[in-house]
Amino acid sequence: MSTAVTLLVALAGCTTGPERPRESAKPEAAEPSTAERPSVTQRPYDTTPARPLGQAAVDAQDHAFLRTAFAVRLPAGHRIPRVDEVVVIHRLDDENGELAWMSDGRTFCYGKIRKGYSSYRCGRLPEKPPAPGLLLTLPPEHDRVTSDDDLDRVRSINFVMAEGGPERFDHVKRSQGMGPVHQAVARFPSGRMVTFLTFDHPGHGWQLDPKAEICRSDRAVCFPSEPVPY
């Protein structure tokens, strides 16, 4: 076993008085019942790492990918996770893909791994979810540009975290040039599940359909194909 893999294995005021008649007011729209709303994490948050489910778990063929992934320094304050904490979202090949992990219920790291370089975006989930059923949306990030003459091949990668799992997400109305939705699910010891999603679109000369969106299979959670940053 190589030194890199060995490292990985070692390795979130009030007044009183007579009541006055109320003036007539416009009726307020009825809010959906609790049963109709997508679940949102309630405190206290999990204090232990999430573990990947199914094919999201690292397998024997992923070790070259992980060596590439962790050959660079992570953002300050974040450690290389144990192998059983790594969630593989998208496998492009032995040295390219996307992964993520959560060391606790509030802390996330997302890695975009490409041969020759890796980039990470780590942090804490926002106190207020961006939308019901969502935990986090990051602004698109350009993939590597090989040359100024190759702009038509540039792609932008989006990363989203949704509450729950393992229902599938997919395009409902799809903009031209939009890539497939890749996803993976992790579960905390408490039973809470989180879905990590990535999808890409042309990074140059591309017009987004404002009605394009991605939805969970039960349509309980939807979001625009170009998420609004938190």
Describe this structure in words.
The protein has 230 residues and is mainly beta. Helix content is 7%, strand content 34%. The chain has two helices and twelve strands. The protein has helices spanning 3-10, 63-69; strands at residues 51-52, 87-93, 96-102, 107-114, 117-124, 134-142, 155-163, 169-173, 182-187, 193-202, 213-216, 222-224. The strands form three sheets. The chain has a five-stranded antiparallel beta sheet with strand order 1-9-10-7-6, with no helix packed on it. A hairpin with a 2-residue loop joins strand 2 and strand 3.
Summarize the structure.
With 230 residues, the chain is mainly beta.
Based on CA atoms alone, the radius of gyration comes out at 21 Å
The portion of residues assigned to helices is under 10%
Number of contiguous helices: 2
Indicate the structural class: mainly beta
User: Outline, from the CA principal axes?
Assistant: globular
N- to C-terminal distance: 40 Å
Instruction: Give the strand tally.
Output: 12
Strand content: 25-35%
Question: What is the element string, with H for helices and E for strands?
Answer: HEHEEEEEEEEEEE
